[in-house]
Write a structure and sequence with these properties.
heterotrimer, A alpha/beta (about 300), B alpha+beta (about 100), C alpha/beta (about 400), A: about 300 residues, eight-stranded mixed sheet, two-stranded antiparallel ribbon, globular, B: about 100 residues, alpha+beta, Alpha-Beta Plaits, 3 helices
């Protein structure tokens, strides 16, 4: 398969301009490539989230794929219904895509997601993770990092670190789990392309920096996303039938270099303005331990 | 004349550009491309196009020369930051306002 | 037994079925395509029977073993949006758990059919019968039908699909837990080919096609908004108006479907409620579900004592049959409403709604409300008789409308 570049990438857009996302929105960027990778042959289901707003307001939508909005906790259940309905009607050739934020995935939506995976539902679930309930004003979520200021941790910052949703999904023994990042759209594109061809429950965790929520200039979105990978906060990998491979920039770093100090990533963001040295050390330790495990697991190093 | 004419019985939305209006009106700076530095222009063939790739709103065209839809460009500045040839500069709207967003 | 009707010749078989099995048969005969249900006492046999039909190849459907009732209805709504005929069943806490989705299904105008096996809701725990669960959901925009016996359970489910798919409003068929769900009765089970003749295929109003992409149930503003073609589209309120309008107008569809059912299967459901000896009655007992059958026994006893008592057995609770109720109660001087539910802070729900129907009309009956049977408390005909007699005595006081209901319990 020829490597996709900006020059040969499919040109057709499924995301229409003039939509409601913030300037520099990484979700918007990620969604562009998710839909391109699926060639628009998709029925999406979307819970309450920033993506709902991206999609627009009745009677106009900014996206040219069929979409079913669904209550917050039910993305994976709604997707299950779409899969069942399409099967009942004998309709083939579309990917059922549940795409939810970290709120709808790690927290209120985790029950339905876990069950859909356990039932081996044939759908693609993408979690776009901006590490907070951004649509409602940046309240803390199960994905918000230790030390981060949020709407509901406004003074002391979050006292617990995030949960590792990709690891949780791996524990469901599903055929495909991967992590991706809006700052590496070609890697994201390839992962969605691959996921499209696999049957069963497929889960992709997409890191999506949020300018207003995290406190950085919106022109820095790509840079912050890359810094997350360069410091090991985000590790780009793929687990296909249990086989673990590092990809993209994480693979390059593993082969040729080492991680930058996490501090460089944290200090760029307003949400970490009150983070303590102790918390930074704790996070650095967590990042180091996780990176070490990934290096040990990766079959392609 | 009421809304019954639309014949919807539930919230059924259809796709259109500019759902949020003229989002170009949001920006306070806008991208300017120096064609002399732009790689596809210099090489006169498809190349680079990273600005097209990284634009969150898909307002940049993958053409030679590159065109930016100023009606909808939100002025985020990602294209300026990402361009490897430093061909794009963000210019403050207050200083120089050539654009009508009508 | 062979019945010859004007239209078709049919064989009818009589089975001994409890309410749960009657419900499962109703869903099976309706050729449901996607079933998503979570077990809860006393509904569990419905889901088990349906999974048996599916695994045994007797029903060509997908049975999704969801992990919660909220997910059950989410599966059904999305499958319904694609165009599949869907079914779910639940009780009490399960119905409460899917409350959000009940609102969603109605607002999305999806013809999901749900069997609610009426059970008490906690705290404290109680698995036995009352109607608090479905009564609590009366504001969600679902059509609600209550069955008096297992025949009505089966028949109502089949009719529910025809009604739902005509008016695009979801339908809840309610029947009393244990009293009906676990009690066996003779039930005529129609033949599949006859049900196929009765039930046309489901035509969804929603399109999920990448070639013609639409987005359903996005954020809708308070005010109407113009679309890209310049057409003024609904605000939230107009969409909700249309749901209310659909429920108001559904009375006609419900009675027409009920009449058609009668013509094909010999059991008519052409009225919004059951009437027993209302023609000459000046005392009317109002009850809903299996209680309406008990009320007939009470009416027998009261008639023997010389009272002209009739029974109004409510069947369709939503939409509430206001004008029909006014007509039925025209001649009455005493209406005794028995509620197996209570809207805390006021009174039994059916009593409130009866009063609402009668306001502004010429009916000047005294109305008395009794709360009975909560948490599976057995309701004896004798107790209903005593309540009516007590109400009759209270007529002397001239009080038209008591502030709060009386409870038949041991407090």
């Amino acid at each position: 398969m020829m490597k996709t570049t900006a020059v040969n990438m499919t040109e057709k857009e499924y995301l229409l301009s003039g939509n409601r996302t913030c300037p520099g929105c990484a979700l918007s960027l990620a969604y562009r490539y998710i839909l391109k990778a699926l060639e628009g042959q998709v029925v999406a289901t979307v819970p309450a989230s920033c993506l709902t707003v991206l999609h627009g307001m009745y009677p106009v939508t900014s996206v040219t794929v069929p979409c079913v909005n669904t209550p917050f906790a039910s993305s994976a259940a709604s997707a299950t219904g779409l899969v069942a309905g399409l099967k009942a009607l004998g309709k083939e050739g579309v990917t059922v895509l549940a795409i939810a934020g970290d709120g709808g995935t790690h927290d209120i939506g985790i029950q339905a997601l876990s069950a859909a995976a356990e039932r081996q539902t044939d759908f693609l679930y993408i979690c776009y993770d901006n590490e907070g309930y951004m649509n409602t004003g940046n309240q803390r979520s199960g994905s918000t990092p230790l030390g981060a200021i949020s709407g509901t941790t406004p003074i002391l910052g979050k006292q617990q670190n995030q949960k590792d949703i990709a690891a949780i999904m791996e524990a469901h023994d599903i055929p495909y789990v991967s992590t991706a990042n809006a700052s590496y759209p070609l890697d994201l594109y390839e992962k969605v392309r691959k996921a499209k061809t696999i049957r069963g429950t497929r889960f992709i965790h997409v890191f999506v920096p949020c300018s207003p929520g995290w406190g950085f200039p919106f022109s820095d979105t790509i840079r912050i996303g890359r810094l997350a990978v360069e410091t090991g906060w985000v590790i780009l990998y793929e687990v296909e039938d249990g086989i673990f491979r590092l990809t993209s920039a994480s693979e390059s770093i593993a082969r040729r270099g080492s991680l930058k100090p996490l501090r460089e990533y944290l200090m760029e963001q307003g949400r970490f303005k009150n983070i303590t040295e102790e918390q930074i050390n704790e996070l650095q330790g967590w990042v180091n331990a996780r990176w070490k495990r990934c290096l040990e697991r990766a079959v392609n190093l | 004349m009421g809304t019954r004419e639309c014949q919807h019985i539930c919230g059924e939305s259809s796709p259109a550009v500019g759902e949020a209006g003229k989002t170009g009106e949001w920006r306070d700076s806008f991208p300017v491309i120096d064609q002399a530095k732009c790689l596809p222009v210099r090489q006169n063939k498809p190349a680079c196009f990273l600005c097209w790739l990284y634009c969150p709103d898909a307002v940049i065209s993958r053409t030679i020369p590159i065109e930016i839809d100023m009606k909808y460009c939100k002025g985020c500045g990602i294209c300026a930051q990402i361009c490897p040839a430093h061909a794009i500069t963000m210019v403050n709207e207050e200083e120089f306002c050539p654009h009508e967003t009508d | 037994m062979i019945l010859v009707s004007k239209k078709i010749t049919k064989k009818v078989t009589t089975w001994i079925l409890d309410g749960n099995h009657a419900a499962a048969q109703g869903a099976k005969l309706s050729r449901v395509q996607v079933i998503a249900a979570y077990p809860i006492t006393p509904q569990s046999p419905v889901t088990e029977t349906l999974s048996e039909f599916v695994e045994g190849g007797k029903l060509d459907a997908q049975y999704i073993a969801v992990e919660s009732e909220h997910s059950a209805l989410a599966v059904c709504t999305s499958a319904s949006m694609v165009g599949a005929r869907t079914f779910t069943a639940t009780s009490a806490h399960g119905l409460a758990y899917m409350h959000e989705m009940l609102h969603w299904a109605a607002g999305a105008r999806l013809p999901v059919v749900l069997a609610c096996v009426n059970r008490a809701i906690g705290a404290p725990w109680n698995v036995l019968n009352d109607q608090q669960d479905s009564i609590s959901q009366r504001d969600t925009g679902w059509i609600q039908i209550y069955a008096r016996n297992n025949q009505e359970v089966l028949d109502s489910i089949i009719q529910a699909y025809k009604i739902a798919e005509s008016v695009y409003v979801p339908v809840m068929v309610c029947y009393d837990g244990y009293v009906l769900s676990h009690t066996e009765m003779p039930v005529n089970v129609p033949l599949q080919e006859d049900v196929d003749r009765f039930l046309p295929p489901y035509k969804p109003h929603t399109i999920l096609d990448p070639a013609n992409p639409k987005n359903y149930n996005l954020v809708t503003l308070a005010n109407p908004r113009i679309n890209a073609e310049g057409v003024l589209c609904h605000g939230y309120m107009e969409l909700r108006y249309l749901l209310q309008e659909a429920l108001q107008n559904s009375r006609e569809t419900i009675t027409t479907v009920g009449r058609e059912f009668g013509e094909l299967f010999g059991r008519s459901y052409a009225r919004m409620f059951w009437e027993d000896r209302l023609d000459d009655a000046d005392i009317v007992i109002v009850a809903m579900g299996s209680l309406a059958m008990e009320a007939i026994v009470a009416a027998d006893m009261l008639r023997e004592a010389g009272h002209k008592v009739g029974v109004l057995g409510l069947r369709v609770f939503r939409p509430f049959p206001k004008s029909d109720v006014v007509q039925a109660l025209e001649k009455s001087r005493l209406v005794v409403v028995f509620d197996k539910n209570i809207s805390y802070g006021i009174e039994g729900a059916t009593c409130s709604e009866i009063k609402s129907a009668l306001y502004g009309n010429s009916v000047r009956a005294v109305i008395r409300n009794f709360i009975v049977g909560l948490g599976g408390r057995d309701v004896k005909a004798r107790e209903l008789v005593d309540a009516v007699n007590k109400s009759l005595l209270s007529l002397k006081e001239g009080v038209l409308n008591e502030e709060y209901p009386e409870w038949i319990c041991d407090i």
